[in-house]
Every structure is written in C-alpha cells, then in structure tokens.
C-alpha cells in the first residue's frame, strides 16, 4: 500500500516537473519577447520615426500570457502571498489539516473560474472576433486565462494531496515546496558569511 502511494506521488512529481519546465519556457520567452518588442518599438519611433503598428497589441497579448501562466508557477514555488497569523499559531497536525482545506478550497475556486473563463472564450470564438492590428482570432489571447487558472487549480489540488500524510513532519505549501520563512537570498548570504569566517579562522 505504501509502495503504491509512493509510486503515485512519484508519477505526479514527474508530471508536475514537466509542467513546470513548460511554464518556465513560456514565461521566459514571454518576458524576452515583451522586452525585445518594446525596445524595437522605441528604436523605430525615435530613430526611424516609424512605430511598429502591432507593438502595443502584441505586448498586451504577452502580458496576459505571463500573468496567468505565472499564477501556476507562483503556486508551484509557494511564493504566493499568504495571510498566516492564525495558521502559524497552530500545532503541526492542525496546520497540515488547515493547509489541506485551504488548498482544496482554492483549487475548487480556481477550477470554477477556469470554467467560466472557458465559457467566455468559447463565446468569443463563436463570434469570430479578431484583434485590430494583427487580425488574429481574439480567443487566442483569452485562452491563456483558462490555461493559467486550470494549472493553478491543479497545483493547489496537488498541494492538498501532498499534505494528506499527517505523519510527515513537513507542511507543504506546494507539491514540492516545504513551508518555510527562510529567504533564499538571505540564506545564501549567511552561508557565504559562515564560509568566510571559517576560512579566516583557519588562516
């Protein structure tokens, strides 16, 4: 039974890792393209006296992608904003149970929002509306809202699953991230300082 559960968690972990890599690629290229598009438009306007006619529309499209794909990424990394005053005061088991409740509730809310977004996107697609400059179907812009909300819902559902083992000492804020208030940059700086002190004491 325990082996079966471990195998299931391993499969879910691999699926989550693949989705994470895809998200990173989409977010990275989205930001790079936004920067390149903005720089090219500025150069065109002030150097060649000719703006790129679709620049603003393309950036709006990329902002939608980065914003809603970033939801799932932030949830996976456990870096979303949390109000945790009551949560922090609870004992370990109560915190795990509360995290399960929070994650499941949020997963359901995100799934409902994704469904309503899908219905809206389907309506836009049926009307055949296109963007003013690029003349591409408008629903291609909004479909990323559905994808982002659906992935966020999946991440919260995985978080709830990860915390079902109440015997574990760790509370997970995502499928892979343990609840912690340590800032990675601060931890790295402290580690470097400790290494320097160790070298100085040896010398």
Report on this structure:
- The chain has 203 residues and is mainly alpha-helical.
- The chain has helices at 2-46, 55-77, 85-88, 92-127, 139-162, 184-202.
- It contains 6 helices and no strands.
- The chain is flat.
Q: Quick one: biggest sheet? A: none
Rg over alpha carbons: 22 Å
Helix content: over 70%
Low-confidence stretches: none
- Sequence of secondary-structure elements: HHHHHH
Binned strand content: under 5%
What best-fitting shape do the alpha-carbon axes yield?
A: flat
Overall SS class = mainly alpha
Q: Count of DSSP E strands?
A: 0
Tag the structure with descriptive keywords:
flat; 6 helices; mainly alpha; 203 residues
Summarize the structure.
This protein has 203 residues and is mainly alpha-helical.
Topology:
Blueprint: H1 2-46, H2 55-77, H3 85-88, H4 92-127, H5 139-162, H6 184-202
Helix pairs in contact: 1-2, 2-5, 4-5
